[in-house]
Design brief:
Layout: H1 4-8, E1 12-15, E2 18-21, H2 29-36, H3 49-58, E3 60-68, E4 79-90, E5 95-103, H4 112-125, E6 132-137, H5 143-151, E7 154-157, E8 165-170
Parallel strand pairs: 5-6
Antiparallel strand pairs: 1-2, 2-3, 3-4, 4-5, 6-8, 7-8
Helix pairs in contact: 4-5
Domain N-acetyltransferase: 31-172
GO molecular function: acyltransferase activity, transferring groups other than amino-acyl groups
Protein name: N-acetyltransferase domain-containing protein
Length: 186
């Protein structure tokens, strides 16, 4: 029987011409590094290729790709363009930390970010002993309401004078998770 980790490391979802996959070998490492080095990815710095590869393999990494078949091609293998990412740092049992959520600005407004987070949520729902999923965000205006709505997250701590919002959602393994599927505070 395959472990939860093995099942989740080989997942994919399709919608129209888009693919979300947790296969770390699909990531175009040089392009991912370019993204990490862009202004759109303001919360992180790029790392060397070897470190990026290790980071993506060590996490549950969700890549978002647009797949197209080139015109006049005799090969039916689609070309994949990397357009998004989300990473769960997790032990696959009790803990997950969501980070590096990004959709290429040319593809925003098409529901791909929502779909990406729904896929992340589907993956965390397969972890029956998960106590919590956490994240940090500096984008109070867009991200906080986005994660509240899609994942049922709440702001745990508000730093004085602004700063990062620390958010969490309790999982099925948390003692305050109700048998009816709702989170309850102690």
């Amino acid at each position: 029987m395959a472990s939860i980790q093995e099942n989740l490391k080989n997942r994919s979802w399709r919608k129209d011409q888009f693919l979300i996959s947790t296969d770390p070998s699909l990531f175009p490492l040089k392009r991912v590094i370019e993204v990490f080095d862009s202004r759109d990815f303001y919360w992180a710095k790029p790392v060397p290729v070897e470190a990026m590869e290790e980071m993506l393999k060590s996490s549950l990494s969700f890549g978002v790709y647009e797949q197209t078949i080139p015109e006049n091609s005799t090969d039916s293998t689609p070309e994949s363009k990397f357009i998004g990412i989300a990473r769960l740092i997790t032990d696959y049992v009790t803990f997950s930390y969501l980070t590096d959520v990004w959709i290429d600005s040319a593809y925003q407004g098409k529901g791909l970010g929502t779909w990406l987070i729904q896929c992340v949520q589907e993956a965390t729902n397969q972890m029956p002993y998960l106590r919590r999923t956490m994240l940090f965000t500096a984008d109070w205006e867009r991200s906080v309401p986005f994660y509240e709505k899609l994942m049922g997250m709440t702001v745990v701590e508000t730093p004085r004078g602004g700063g990062l919002a620390f958010m969490e959602v309790k999982g099925k393994g948390h003692p305050c998770y109700g048998s009816d599927g709702y989170n309850y505070d102690v």
